[in-house]
Amino acid sequence: MSRNDSKYFSTTKKGEIPELKEELNSQYKDKRKDAVKKVIAAMTVGKDVSSLFTDVVNCMQTENLELKKLVYLYLINYAKSQPDLAILAVNTFVKDSQDPNPLIRALAVRTMGCIRVDKITEYLCDPLQRCLKDDDPYVRKTAAICVAKLYDINAELVEDRGFLESLKDLISDNNPMVVANAVAALAEIQDNSTRPIFEITSHTLSKLLTALNECTEWGQVFILDALSRYKAADAREAENIVERVTPRLQHANCAVVLSAVKMILQQMELITSTDVVRNLCKKMAPPLVTLLSAEPEIQYVALRNINLIVQRRPTILAHEIKVFFCKYNDPIYVKMEKLEIMIKLASDRNIDQVLLEFKEYATEVDVDFVRKAVRAIGRCAIKLERAAERCISVLLELIKIKVNYVVQEAIIVIKDIFRRYPNTYESIIATLCESLDTLDEPEAKASMIWIIGEYAERIDNADELLESFLESFPEEPALVQLQLLTATVKLFLKKPTEGPQQMIQVVLNNATMETDNPDLRDRAYIYWRLLSTDPEAAKDVVLAEKPVITDDSNNLDPSLLDELLVNIATLSSVYHKPPEAFVTRTLASAQKTEDDDYPDGSESESSVNPANGPGSPPTSSYTIPASVAPASPPSAAAPVPDLLGDLMGMDNSSIVPLDQPAAPSGPPLPVVLPASTGQGLQISAQLTRRDGQVFYNMLFENNSQVPLDGFMIQFNKNTFGLAAAGALQVPQLQPGTSARTLLPMVMFQNMSQGPPSSVLQVALKNNQQPVWYFNDKILFQAFFTEDGRMERAAFLETWRSLPDSNEVSKDFPAIVIGGVDATVERLAASNIFFIAKRKNANQDVFYFSAKLPRGIPLLIELTTVVGNAGIKCAIKTPSPEMSTFIFEAIESLLRS
Amino acid sequence: MPVAASAVYFLNLRGDVLINRLYRDDVGGNMVDAFRTHIMQTKELGTCPVKQIGGCSFFYMRISNVYIVIVVSTNANVACAFKFVVEAVALFKSYFGGAFDEDAIRNNFVLIYELLDEIMDFGYPQNLSPEILKLYITQEGVRSPFSSKASERPVPNATLQVTGAVGWRREGLVYKKNEVFLDIVESVNLLMSSKGVVLRCDVTGKILMKCFLSGMPDLKLGLNDKIGLEKESQLKSRPTKSGKTIELDDVTFHQCVNLTRFNSEKTVSFVPPDGEFELMKYRITEGVNLPFKVLPTIKELGRTRMEVNVKVKSVFGAKMFALGVVVKIPVPKQTAKTSFTVTSGRAKYNAAIDCLVWKIRKFPGQTEPTLSAEIELISTMTEKKSWTRPPIQMEFQVPMFTASGLRVRFLKVWEKSGYNTVEWVRYITKAGSYEIRC
Lengths: 896, 438
Hints:
The complex is a heterodimer of chains A (896) and B (438). In chain A, 49% of the residues lie in helices and 11% in strands. Chain A is globular. Chain A is of the alpha+beta class and 896 residues long. The two termini of chain A are 47 Å apart. Among the domains of chain A are: 5-226, Alpha Horseshoe (Leucine-rich Repeat Variant), CATH 1.25.10.10; 346-438; 558-642, no CATH class; 671-778, Immunoglobulin-like, CATH 2.60.40; 785-895, TATA-Binding Protein, CATH 3.30.310.10. In chain A, a hairpin with a 3-residue loop joins strand 11 and strand 12. Chain B has 438 residues and is of the alpha+beta class. Helix content of chain B is 18%, strand content 41%. Chain B is built from eight helices and 23 strands. Chain B has helices at 31-40, 78-96, 102-107, 109-119, 130-136, 158-163, 226-236, 259-265, and strands spanning 7-12, 17-22, 50-53, 56-63, 66-72, 120-121, 124-125, 179-192, 198-212, 218-223, 250-253, 268-270, 275-284, 292-301, 305-314, 321-330, 335-342, 346-350, 355-364, 370-377, 392-399, 408-414, 422-436. In chain B, strand 1 and strand 2 form a beta hairpin. Classes of the chains: A alpha+beta (896), B alpha+beta (438). At the A-B interface, helix 2, helix 4, helix 7, helix 9 and helix 12 of A face strand 2, strand 3, strand 4, helix 2 and helix 3 of B.
C-alpha cells in the first residue's frame, strides 16, 4: 500500500507562502501537519521557504513523532540562514534530549549536531554529555557520531569539554554498534587533526577485531577501515591479524570484502613466509571475482581496485582471466576496465584466448570500445615478445575488414610495435600502405608518415607516398605537419636524390614561411641549418638510434601504488590518484585531468614512447613532440640560454608542461565567450597562479559543426601589462569536443596608461571563424607571489617604515570568518601568509603579509569577531593605488 | 574514511529533485545543478558512474526512472556508498510494496525523509534492515508486521533491537506452525563461441530463505559441497558418503551467518531474520551442467538475403521441462521481411530490438526443436560497415534442476522450546547471461 503524498507538491494559484503561513498557524493538528509536509515538499523542489521559519518552529512542540521529525528536517536546512531565530528551537531540543523515549532523545541529539549555528552548539554540550552515558545503546551510538559533528564545527569545544575521552571510553562499550560508531567518529577526528588522538595500540586492535564478529555490516567497514592503517610489529602479529580478518572475505557486503582485502594486503607486506602469502593470495581471488556479479556500478569500483591489486600481486588473479571477458550487455565503463585488466593478465599461456576475445570486441558497435580493443592487441604485442607475431597477424586481419577507425587505430599501434621490435616486422609495410587513402585522423596519419620516413629506404615509392601528403601540407594539423617535416628530412638523408631534394625545399619553405606554428617553424629552421652546414651531423642526429620502448601495462609508480593500495575501496582507488589530488579545502589547488573518463588509458598509452628521441613518431596521446629539440638529446633539454634554446622555444616548454595531458581545472571556469556569441565556440577562462607563474587557464568547447584550429590570442593593453608569454597551444577541436590549456602570462609588457582597471580585453581568432573579442575580469589574487612570507620583525619594521598615508582600509560587512585555521589555510594557498593574531577587547586582529610582483610588500590587518559577520580590513603597501584591486581579491578569498 | 555520502539526491529523468538530504556541510546545496549540467545533459551520462566535478565527486545509479546521486568532497568509501544505495533501494521497496519509481517516491516522500534520517548519520550508514526499521518507523499507509495490533504502537525495546547483537531479528516472535522455505536459485552464465567452444561458463547461485519460526532459533545448513563434507567427515572421523560433491568457488553470506565459525568448521550456522532474506550466494565454475545447447547457422546470401537455422537442444532429464524459454536471434537493422518455420513454440520478428524472438512456453528435456528462417534485407548503398553480429541470447527457467548439482543435505533448527519445524526445499535454474556468438 502506498500513500499519496504527491498532493503536497501541487501548488495553488494564490500566493503560496502566505497560505502556508496561515495553515501552519491553524488550530487543527492535522492541518498543521499537512502544512509542514507542504513546506518540506516545497523545500525539496528548491523553493525558498526560509521565511516560514518561526511558523514551522512553532509546530515543533508536538507529541507526534512524524511531525517532529519533519520540523527537525526543516531546521537542518534553514537554521544556518536564520541563526537568530534558530535559538527559538533550543529549548525543545534540550527538553527532547531528556525525553523518556530513547528514539526522541537520539533524534534530538542527532539533529542538533546537524545545525551548524554557534549559539546552538553551546547548548548542545550538556545534552551530548548526558547522551554519551545514556543507558540506551541507540542513544549512545547516535551521540558517538554527534561528537564527530561537533568536532567539525568547533574542535576546541570538543577537546575542552572532554568529549574525546568519553568517545574513547565508548570503544570498550558492550554494544558493538556503539563501538563501531565510536571508531568511525574517532577515525574521522584523527583525519582532521595533526595531534595524535586515536592511536591504535595492539590492545585496541585485538578488542576491535573481536567486536568485528558482532557488528552490523557497516560497522565492520568502519572498523576495518580504521584498522587498515595499523602497522603490525612483526610478521607474526601480521599473520595473526590476517587470520582474524580473512573470514570477512565471505561477507555478502562488497564494502566489507574490499575493506578486508585492503587490510590483508597491508599486513601481507610484513609477512615473510611465502607459503602464507601464497595461501592468502589463493583466498582473496574468489571473493574478488564474486564482486563482478554485483551491480555494474559496484563492478566498476571493484575493477578499478582489481587493476591496482594485480599490479602489486599479479598472482592473485593470474588464472582467472576468463572472468574478465566482456559480456555483450556490460555497460561501456565495465567493458573498458575489463579490457585494461585483461591486458595486465595476458601472458604467453593465455594469449591465444585473449587475442580471440580482442578480435571479437574489435567488431562490436561502440567505437571507443573497438578502438581500445585494437590498441589492447598492440599493447599485448609490446608486452609479450613471443606473442608479438600472433598479435600482428590479428591486426592485419582487422585491417582487411576495412572499417575505417579500426584501420587507423591498428596503424597507430603498429607504429609502436615497430619501435619495440625494430627491423623485425617491416614486411607488413606493403599491406599498411594499401590503406593510405582511408586515413583521415591526424594521429593515424602521423603514425603512417612516421613509418614511411623511418623505413624510407625499404619502401620503393616512399617519395611518391610522402608527396601525396605534401599537397595538403598547409591544411594539416600540427601533429601531421611535424611528422611530414621530419619524415621528409629522413627521406632526403636516406635517398639524397633529386625528387626528395625538391620535396624538402617545398616542406622547409612551407614550414618556415607559411605557418604560424612556432614549434613547426623552429623545428624546420633547425633541420635547415643542420642540412646546410653539416649533412653528416644531420644524419647522426636525425637518423640516430632510438631507445627501445617497453611495455607500460604496469604503469603506476610504485610509491603511488602503495598509497593507492592503502586507499582501496575509496575514491582515491577509483581515480587512481592520491587523495590530496582531488580532496581540497582550498579550491585553488584542485586538480584533475581533463580526460579522466578512463584516466590511465590515455596516460599510459602516451608513455609507450618514453623518450621523444630524434624524429620520434608522434606519441599516442595528443602530445606535440616538437617541444623537445630534435637537435639535442632529451637529457640535454634543460633550458640553455643560447640562441638555440630561444629558437626552439625552450624557455616556454620548460614552463608549460606541454606533454602532460593533465590540464588543471578546479572549479568550473567562468564563461567569457558564450557559445551563442561565438557561433558555437564557447570559451571559459580565468587567471590563475601555479608554481610561481601566472597562467591564463582556458577551456575551449567546440559546439559548432566544423572542426576549429589555428587558435591565436592577443591581449589588449591593460593596467598590469599582462601579455601572453608563449603561443596558444590548442589542438584541432573536433565538433563536440573541448580542450583545456594553460597559457603562461607575463606582466608589465604592454601597460596601458589611464586609470587603473581590472578589465582584460582579449582577442581570439582561429582559422574558421571571425575574430572574437571578449572582456575578462583580472583576478588580482593571481599576482601574489610565493615569497610573500615575512618574519614578524620584518613585518613590524615594514609597517613602521611606511607612512600612514599608505594605509587604506575597508569594511566587509557581510563576511564571516568561521574557522580561523581554514581561513588562514585558504589565504596561504593564495600566497597571503599569516603573521600573528592578537585579541583587542572582544575582537580578534589578524596580520598577514603578501608580496606583489616586483617585490612590492603588502601588509594586511583584519579585525573581526570570529563567527560574526563584519570584517575590517586595513592594508599598507608602497603602492596604495592598487588598493581597490587588493580589497576585491581579499574579499573574494574570504568569501569563498 | 568510511564516510559514504555528504548529500543524497533522488532525481527524475528530467533532473527534477524528488528528494534531497544533506548529511554534511562540505558540499553546497547547488551541487545538484552541477550534476545536471555536467553529467545529465551531456553524453557523459552513463559512461562512468563515478565522476569528479570541481571539488566534488558524484556517484550515481539509475533505478527504474530515478537517478540516485551521492555527492562527496572527501576521499569517501565508494564501495560503501554504492552498496548503501543498493540496500536503501531494497529497503524502500520493502516499505512501498515492491515498486521504486518516481511515483512511489513522490507518494512517500515524508516516509523516505524519515528513513534517510535513520539509515545514515553524518554520512555513515547505520542499520538498514527492513525487519528492524519497520518496528519503529511506521506510517499509516505502511503495514508493519504488527500493525494489526495497533495499540502496541511504540515498540518499547525497538532501540535495543536496532543495536542488539542480533540486529536483524526481533525477540518474542510466535508462530503456530514453524516453517522454513528454502529456494535454491541458480543463474547460468554462458559465453560460447560460434564454433561451439565454451569461452566462459559459471553458475551464480543464491539460497533464498523464508522463515516463519518462533523465538530465537539457531539454524545449521548442510550442503553437498566438497569442503564442508570433508571437514565433517574429519570431525566425525568417518568416511565421506558416496555421491556427488560440489566444489564451490566462492561463497558469501548474509550478515546473520557466523563467518568465523564458517571459516574454522565450514558449517553454515545462523540466527535467521524473520521472513524472507538471501542467506547466501555462491559461484561455481567447474562441472557445470548446461541445460541447453544452441547450434546456429547463419548464412548471408548476397546483399539482400539471409538464411538462419537455429537448433536448441535440451540436455536435462526427459521427465523434466523448462518454462518460459525465449531465444533471441539477432538480425540486421535493415531487415525488411522475415518468414520462418518452427517445430515448436512461436516466433516473431521484433524490429525494436532487431531480433527474431522465439518463445517456447514448455520445453521438455531431451528434445531439439529447430527454427529456420529466411530474411530479406533492404539493400543499402551507404552501408559501409559489415553487420556486426551480436550474440544469440537465451532466457529460461528449469524447475527442480540445478546446473551445479548442488543439493541441500540437511537444515537443522534448534530452539530452546524444542518445537518441530517443517522444511521445504525448491530448486530452480535460470538463464543469467546466456550468450552464443554466431
